[in-house]
């Protein structure tokens, strides 16, 4: 199967939010040339195509291997976030069905008096987060602190840790960990 260079260039240009004029200006060519290539009325030489792609910027290899048909999902409506938590701790995973994720992003909600369990958690990697509302007691490596809205944390996940909502209202956190734990 051969690549439709014109259609591919147009899709790449639009993906980067560039008009034909803007791409032509950046590449130092006429916008007429960009138009002719996109309409497949001109078959550009490798050097001409490279010059056009320099305006994006993108190398030839990336242009020819970029799979625009199999675009990965970028946006995730709230109802698509998988809940992997418990009855009192809601853990909503962003992009749970994406293959080869290199991190986990969670939207967490802890009911009053909820916690991650009596046992301290340990796993490979790092994690961090920001408290959006409420309060959470975070224990990491034997040190505890109560964090509130706007407070944040970041630590090596190999240190024993535990989360516990000691407040009277729900606690909401947005967190990330790498490598993915879920």
Class computed from helices, strands and strand pairing: alpha+beta
Quickly give the CATH architecture of the largest domain. Sandwich
Instruction: Characterize the biggest β-sheet.
Output: 6 strands, antiparallel
What low-confidence regions span 5 or more consecutive residues with pLDDT below 50? none
What tags apply to this protein structure?
9 strands, 27% strand, three-stranded antiparallel sheet, Jelly Rolls, 434 Repressor (Amino-terminal Domain), alpha+beta, 2 domains, six-stranded antiparallel sheet, 182 residues
What does this structure look like?
- The chain has about 180 residues and is of the alpha+beta class.
- The protein has 2 domains: about 5-65, lambda repressor-like DNA-binding domains (434 Repressor (Amino-terminal Domain), Orthogonal Bundle); about 80-180, Jelly Rolls (Sandwich), CATH 2.60.120.
- About 25% of the residues lie in helices and about 25% in strands.
- It is built from 5 helices and 9 strands.
- The protein has helices at about 5-15, 20-25, 30-40, 45-55, 60-65; strands at about 80-85, 90-95, 105-110, 125-135, 135-140, 145, 150-155, 160-165, 170-180.
- It has a 6-stranded antiparallel sheet with strand order 1-2-3-9-4-7, with no helix packed on it. The chain has a 3-stranded antiparallel sheet with strand order 6-5-8, with no helix packed on it.
- The longest helix has 11 residues, at about 5-15.
- The chain starts with a helix and ends with a strand.
- The model has no long low-confidence stretch (mean pLDDT about 90).
